[in-house]
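Journal club prep — side note

Before the paper discussion, L.F. wants everyone to see what a predicted structure for a comparable chain looks like in token form. Sequence:
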Amino acid sequence: MELDLKRLPRHVAIIMDGNGRWARQRIKNRVFGHRKGAENVRGILTCCNDLGIRYLTLYTFSAENWNRPGREVRALWGLLERFLNSELPELVQNRVRIRHIGEDADIPASNLRQLMAAEAQTAHFDGLTLTLALNYGGRQEILRAAERFACDVKEGLHAPGQLSSELFSRYLYDPQLPDPDLVIRTGAEIRVSNFLLWQIAYAELYFTETLWPDFSKDDFTLALAEFQRRERRFGRTGEQVKTGSSSSQRRASPPDVPLSGSGTR
């Protein structure tokens, strides 16, 4: 399938769902499915690198995942450690920058040290930015941002009336991370599950029945092709999008939101 390389999303975010069901179909335990799902990340990373996609965010461990059985939770953190140990040399070779978003407080100490070391080692890289959402919840992120802004108001750094979308975004976990252009959810579920709730306001959503361990480069290409078929209006009419015009009375798009699939900001 041919893609228009000039109209690729700048930022793709993925909800990697279906590991447990994939394992159950094969009469295996859920940990086996998570292991296969972790292995599948490599192919999607390679695809993003080859295509020149600049940002990839993976919903790796949600704040709600702590409610799963203890054995599964421990296995998930173990898989993260294994992934970074095995993949970091190639990520460094490809100049992939590693970041993470979420609450650090409950992340196992060994995992957090490993993450911080990987981030420091890759901080200066200018290739793909891989962001891992760990102990992450969209509502928690918004509440945290609101609390931090309120503290700054109390300290006299801002007035309440100064708050805008652009200013509020500076209080998110990673203010430098651009909003996703495309959100992919595998595994047949049609919901966003508390993922990047603030950031995905104008994202294109793509749902597929393919379970994450089976989500191949071809499946990823299909998602990108569907993204390119969509007309991103941001409140404008189809005619305005085609002509590149907008109303002179108000902005045609929210601040820092790209007007086309090119992902330019």
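L.F.'s comment for the group: The radius of gyration is 19 Å. Keep this in mind when we get to the figures.
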